[in-house]
Design a protein that fits this description.
By secondary structure, this protein is of the alpha/beta class. It folds into 3 domains: 3-114, 3-Layer(aba) Sandwich (Rossmann fold); 118-288, Mur-like, catalytic domain (UDP-N-acetylmuramoyl-L-alanine:D-glutamate ligase), CATH 3.40.1190; 297-440, Alpha-Beta Complex (Protein-Tyrosine Phosphatase, Chain A). It has 16 helices and 17 strands. The chain has helices spanning 10-18, 30-42, 61-69, 102-109, 116-123, 137-150, 184-187, 213-225, 240-246, 261-274, 279-288, 316-326, 345-353, 365-380, 393-403, 425-440, and strands at residues 23-26, 48-52, 73-77, 90-93, 113-114, 127-132, 155-159, 177-181, 196-199, 232-236, 252-256, 297-302, 305-309, 330-335, 358-361, 386-389, 409-412. The strands form 3 sheets. It has a 6-stranded parallel sheet with strand order 7-8-6-9-10-11, with helices on both faces. A 6-stranded mixed sheet has the order 12-13-17-14-15-16, with helices on both faces. Strands 3-2-1-4-5 form a 5-stranded parallel sheet. Helix 12 packs parallel to helix 13. The longest helix has 16 residues, at 365-380. The mean pLDDT is 94.
Amino acid sequence: MTIDEFKNKNLESLWQNWYGAKILILGLGKEGLDTLNFLRKLFPEKIIGVGDRQEISNFQLPIFNLLKRNKRIKLHLGKNYLKAIKHYDVVIKSPGIPIHLPEIEKAFREGRITSQTEIFFDNCPGKIIGITGTKGKSTTTSLIYAILKEDGINARFVGNIGKPALNLLFSATEKDFFVYELSSHQLYNLKKSPYIAVLLNIYQEHLDYYKNFNEYKYAKANITKYQKKDDFFVFNSKDKEVREITKKTKANKIAIKGEYYDLDIAAARAVGKIFKISGTKIEKAIKKFKPLPHRLENIGTYKGIKFYNDALSTIPETAIAALDYLKNDVQTLFLGGFDRGLKFEKLASRILESKIRNLVLFPTTGTRIWKALQLASLVQCKKMPKHFFTNKMNNAVKWAYENTDRGKICLLSCASPSFSIFKDYKEKGGLFKKYVRLYAKM
């Protein structure tokens, strides 16, 4: 492909600016590979640096072959991969690489670090609808996309849950609308905001990535920080942290409110109204929408027990929201996981106020949650539920079947990240579903 063949003429400027630059991609996940593919199309003959903490032998076969056979890739792999940064003019960092490593901080100060998100925002000729929030952004993004497509709008689905963004720039036009799910990591250091910004909520999260909660909030605030008076800001009016950010925006403000899934729907409806889509089409799209897996997913009724998979519940607030949504039918609750130093006092109080009789507790926060419950029970004079400590999902599900009554709910909503014993939330939720169905046959 030659530069004259690019439909997006904005890329001509990028091509000229980076033609003589030494470029390094940091991180070979989904975004990193998309970035490599994008740069290879833009600069077919350029030698591009690739850095990753993994050694080459640890990559899956397709990536392994790509790296080994391509002579126009210069590899910097292993624990010292960040030392390569000093040899490059442009460093494209993947979101998962921590921002406060010394080499990364130095490159930020020198203005040499960018990201896939920043490149996309700087070179996108169409309009961007950006969605963020500690929780709910994937569902909201999917709902907005469904509503726009229902009306025949030329919408494209990008970001964490959609396609990686950069390669869409080759065919992007001014008539396109890009529905973009944005994490705090993608928003960090961003210097442009979308045409329509949606901010759902801000809870304490990723405190192992940021220096403190304020830094996390500042990253989220970039969703609206650079908006103009002709832009739109859809925000959750019930969230205190969100309201603080709202005070500084120049965009047209549209307040929404709701709990859990209702908030996602309210945000999607608000965006549909900005596009003047009829209420009939909006409701039709919502009715047809299938909830995403691992997000308060009803996986069925087995032996008279209703099972819900909320594996993406990684903070106490989402577990509380799930309990509020499902109400007093929840009798067995799965909790615990990786410890990011979050507080569990409010969750403990909410559990004691509920009809929950059984708790499955995974390491490592399962122990901290149980201690918070013991303290709360003394203050509230409430009876403690039965509990079961385990690090095996099969044992957890088996115990749940033995202790949950017919007509009641067993809920996996762990209020903690999955990494202590599971690879990620998908593995955790997948194992939960697997053993629920397996033990239903016994």
